[in-house]
Specification:
Blueprint (H helix, E strand, L loop, with lengths): L14 E6 L4 H16 L7 E7 L5 H15 L14 H8 L2 E5 L5 H13 L7 E5 L6 H10 L6 E2 L6 E3 L1 E5 L7 H14 L5 E3 L7 H11 L13 E9 L8 H26 L8 H14 L8 E4 L1 E2 L23 E6 L11 E6 L6 E8 L19 E7 L3 E9 L7 E9 H4 L8 H10 L8 H20 L8 E2 L6 H8 L13
The chain binds 6-O-phosphono-beta-D-glucopyranose.
Length: 513
C-alpha cells in the first residue's frame, strides 16, 4: 500500500519577520535553517522581509554571510539538526533578498522607533509582522513591553472584526517563567501590551511530526479509543533521554536544571497529547481547551514521587556535570528527573504516568510507552497471567520515528508456547524524509495565525503549578549524594526504586528499538 497523496499547504500571506537575537545560536542553528526549508518547499510568503536585531556590530551583508556560513556547515551532515545537500541560490535569495539588520540595545526605546519606521517602509507586506524573541528569557518582558509601548502590536481588523487586515504577532521561546508566580507575572506583563491571539508561546516539541501524529493516531482511528482508559491501561511511561550533556550551556543550565528545562514544557506536552479528551474540532480553541483540562486535572506532584539525579564522570574520560564549563564544582543542579503523576479525571483516575528525562544517558530515546493490563486469565498450560509479558503500545518520537505494538503470539512448534513480538510502523518506510528541523511547522503556523500548537497563558501557569512543590523542595534542600549516576548509564538507582515501589520497572533504554 502506498502512502496517500498529500494535502498541499499554501504559502502564508506577505509579512516581515523581526528576529530579536539575530546573532544568537537559535537563529543560526534552527530559525534560519527552518526558514530556508520553508522557502524550499514553497511555504515562505512570496513577499517576505527579514529584519535582524542584535547588539553585535553587524550589517545586512555581514549578517547574511554569517548565516550562509552556518548553513554551509550543515551540508551533508546527516546527524545535524538541519540536513541539506546544498544551498540553492534561488531559495537563499528568496529568504535573504530583502533582509536588513538593526544594531541596537533591547532596552533602548529608540530601537523600537527605528523598527517602527522600518516596518512602515516595508513594501508589499501589508504591515504584517512577526516578532520572534530568540533571546535569553530575562529579555522577554522588557522587549515585549517596549514593542507594545512603541505601538507595534496595533492591528487593523476588517469591518466585522473577524480577521486582521494587518496582523502583529510575537513568538516567545522557553523558559516561560521559572515557576508559577513568575509565569503569571510574565503573562500579566505581556497581556498588558498584546492580546492572547497575538502571543505564540512556543514549545519546539510540538513541531515534531511524531508528536503531532499522536493526535492523528488517537482521533483519526476508531480502534484505539475503547482501549484508551483506566479500564485497559495499567500505566504510561514517558521518556526523554539524551546522550548529550550540557555542552556549552552550563551557565543557563546551572540555574535551570532538568526539571525546569524539560518537564513542565516538553514532557508535559507529550503527556497532554496522550491524555487529552477528543477535542470538539481541530481549531486552536478546542484543542487547547482539552489540553488545559489535562493540566488542570493533574495532581500537584508530591516531592516523595520525584527523583533527581546528576551525572558523574563516565567511561573514556567523559566529564561529570560538575566538571563542565561554567558549572559550580559543588553544583546541586539536577541533570535527571523522574516522577510519578496522577490525572484526576474519569479516563485516568488511578493510572500512574511515570516521566523521566536526563542528560548523558545510555541512549537517545524520546518515547511514550503505554502498558496495557494483562489478559484476565491465561488458558495455556503452565502459564499464569502474571508470567505473560505485557502488551505495550510504543510511540517513538525520536530518533527513530515509529509506532509499535507488542503482543503475544504462539511460538511455532508442537507445544503451545508463547512469545512476545512487535508489529511496527516506521515513518521512514512510508514517507520520504524531507529536511525538517521541527521549527518549520511552528513558524508557518505563526504566519498563518494558527495557535493550535502553542501554549495559552492558562496552560503554562497550570504546568508550573503541577511541579511547584517539587521545585520548592528541591530549591530549599540541596540534593545529597550528587553525582548519583554515571554518564552513559540508565539514570540513578532512586529512579528504579520509584518504580519498584509500585511493583513496576522502567523499560530499559538500552533495549533494541
Ligand atoms: C531544549 C532544552 O528545550 O530541548 C535542551 O533546553 C534539550 O536542554 C532540548 O536538549 C531537547 O530537544 P530535542 O529536540 O533535541 O529533543
Amino acid at each position: 500500500m502506498a502512502a496517500p497523496p498529500r494535502r498541499e499547504a499554501k504559502p502564508p500571506g506577505p509579512c516581515t519577520m523581526v528576529i530579536f537575537g539575530a546573532g544568537g545560536d537559535l537563529t543560526k542553528r534552527l530559525l534560519v535553517p527552518a526558514l530556508y526549508n520553508l522557502a524550499h518547499t514553497g511555504l515562505l510568503p512570496e513577499t517576505f522581509e527579514l529584519i535582524g536585531v542584535d547588539l553585535a556590530d553587524l550589517d545586512a551583508d555581514t549578517w547574511r554571510d554569517s548565516l550562509h556560513r552556518m548553513m554551509e556547515s550543515f551540508i551533508g551532515k546527516a546527524a545535524g539538526e538541519s540536513r541539506i545537500d546544498r544551498i540553492e541560490d534561488d531559495v537563499w535569495q528568496h529568504l535573504t533578498g530583502r533582509m536588513s539588520y538593526i544594531k541596537g540595545d533591547f532596552s533602548d526605546d529608540g530601537l523600537y522607533q527605528m523598527l517602527k519606521r522600518r516596518l512602515e517602509q516595508a513594501s508589499g507586506t501589508g504591515g504584517n509582522c512577526l516578532f520572534y524573541l530568540a533571546v535569553a528569557d530575562r529579555f522577554f518582558e522588557p522587549v515585549v513591553t517596549r514593542i507594545g509601548k512603541a505601538g507595534l502590536f496595533e492591528e487593523n481588523w476588517d469591518q466585522d472584526g473577524q480577521k486582521p487586515e494587518r496582523w502583529r504577532r510575537v513568538v516567545i521561546e522557553k523558559p516561560f517563567g521559572h515557576d508559577e508566580a513568575s509565569a503569571k507575572a510574565l503573562n500579566a506583563a505581556i497581556l498588558r501590551v498584546a492580546e492572547e491571539h497575538q502571543i505564540f508561546r512556543i514549545d519546539h516539541f510540538l513541531g515534531k511530526e511524531t508528536v503531532q501524529n499522536i493526535m492523528a493516531l488517537r482521533f483519526a482511528n476508531g480502534m484505539f479509543e475503547p482501549l484508551w482508559n483506566r479500564d485497559r491501561i495499567d500505566h504510561v511511561q514517558i521518556t526523554a533521554a539524551e546522550t548529550v550533556g550540557v555542552e556549552t550551556r552550563g551557565r543557563f543550565y546551572e540555574k535551570t536544571g532538568a526539571l525546569r528545562d524539560m518537564v513542565p514544557n516538553h514532557v508535559f506536552q507529550l503527556l497532554a497529547m496522550v491524555a487529552m479528551e477528543p477535542p470538539a474540532g481541530f481549531d486552536a480553541r478546542a484543542v487547547r481547551n482539552r489540553k488545559t483540562d489535562v493540566f488542570t486535572a493533574m495532581h500537584t506532584v508530591d516531592p516523595k514521587d520525584a527523583v533527581r539525579g546528576q551525572y558523574g564522570p563516565g567511561p573514556d574520560g567523559v566529564a561529570g556535570y560538575r566538571q563542565e564549563q561554567d558549572v559550580d564544582p559543588d553544583s546541586g543542579t539536577e541533570t535527571y528527573v523522574a516522577m510519578k503523576l496522577g490525572i484526576d479525571n474519569w479516563r485516568w483516575a488511578g493510572v500512574p504516568f511515570y516521566l523521566r528525562t536526563g542528560k548523558h544517558m545510555t541512549r537517545r530515546v524520546t518515547e511514550i510507552a503505554i502498558r496495557f493490563k494483562p489478559a484476565p486469565s491465561a488458558p495455556f498450560e503452565d502459564t499464569d497471567v502474571a508470567a505473560l509479558p505485557p502488551n505495550w503500545l510504543l510511540l517513538r518520537i525520536q530518533p527513530e520515528e515509529s509506532i509499535a505494538l507488542q503482543f503475544e503470539v504462539k511460538r511455532p512448534g508442537p507445544v503451545v508456547d508463547l512469545a512476545a513480538v512487535r508489529m511496527a510502523f516506521k515513518y521512514a518506510d512510508w514517507f520520504p524524509k524531507e529536511p525538517n528541523i521541527g521549527y518549520e511547522t511552528l513558524i508557518y503556523d505563526v504566519m498563518t495565525g494558527d495557535q493550535t500548537l502553542f501554549n495559552r497563558a492558562d496552560m503554562v501557569e497550570e504546568t508550573w503549578r503541577v511541579v511547584g512543590k517539587v521545585l520548592e523542595t528541591w530549591t530549599a534542600e540541596k540534593a545529597a549524594g550528587f553525582p548519583n549516576y554515571t554518564s552513559g548509564s540508565e539514570g540513578p538507582a532512586d529512579a528504579d526504586a520509584l518504580m519498584q515501589r509500585d511493583g513496576r520497572a522502567w523499560r530499559p533504554l538500552a533495549e533494541e528499538r
